[in-house]
Predict the structure.
Amino acid sequence: MSKYSEEAKRKRRASKKKGLVIVNTGNGKGKTTAALGVLFRAWGRGMKVGVIQFLKNSTARYGEIKAARKLGIDWVSTGDGWTWTSKDLDESAALARHGWQLAQERIVGGEYDVLILDEFTYPLHFGWLETEEVIGWLRENKPPMLHLIITGRYAPDALVEFADLVTEMVEVKHPYRDQGITAQPGIEF
Amino acid sequence: MSKYSEEAKRKRRASKKKGLVIVNTGNGKGKTTAALGVLFRAWGRGMKVGVIQFLKNSTARYGEIKAARKLGIDWVSTGDGWTWTSKDLDESAALARHGWQLAQERIVGGEYDVLILDEFTYPLHFGWLETEEVIGWLRENKPPMLHLIITGRYAPDALVEFADLVTEMVEVKHPYRDQGITAQPGIEF
């Protein structure tokens, strides 16, 4: 086959539109922040956007929750104040399962153009939700044009495999560790 | 020195507040998008935010420019429709230098809390601006509490050295190349 027809084929394929499954993972900054950037952009186009926030409590997301409220963007916080040192993991697991239920309702509801499942990799990573079940459910139930953005470290391999677009945020330099600078309001939360 | 006093010292240091120089670089998605997420977050806190966009023309940033306009966020497009295959690089270089002048005015003006220099790494990388001069100028003139976010591939080493927080966005999986899917409005622009 000639190079030309390969090119034409590529261009035809490239006109395909679909709702993407996007995963922002890695140990660096910018996973949630990049998802918020998409929210901003999509909101600018008049698209219906929403956030379901897993695990972290509201105060850790102060700036963005305030912005979402001002803009009339749906923002649901399903998590407790879970941290890496949490003792009561049963409680966190139950909250994560509850969050996934809410997410499922919103996904099948069909009213969203873009939905963010913030920090959703953790319940998968910790086994509070079965990754294969979640993916199987999404495969059956996600409306074709819905963009779904999943953030968090440790994205399971099966999720990476399932996703359309996966970016790893890699920490090159970090002000906390390297210079002892505290988290800055408006920048990090 | 005991572990305890080290910990106390670390905590004292960690209370330091300052305007960060943040660089989002790498070949992956999410460099500009994460900067927009910070914009969204900072705007939510009532901070004064602005964007100076280098190189790309306005249509490539349609969703975010529309959002910025709706929210009364300053957005200046200084670039032409520069692409990787541009012939007229003199023109692009002149526009980049003009953009840097505008950026300098806004930086010393002192009215911003967060300023994004979008795609600013390119004029540095291509030598249209002298990286050492730019850094020297910032060292002298950047208001201490101003957060400056610089995006783009090929961040020069000296800029990485100068910055407080550097993240590399690494492409793990990309729908264009892997599946022939077109850029999605609201998601990528």
Summary: Chain B touches chain A through 70 residues (CB under 8 Å).
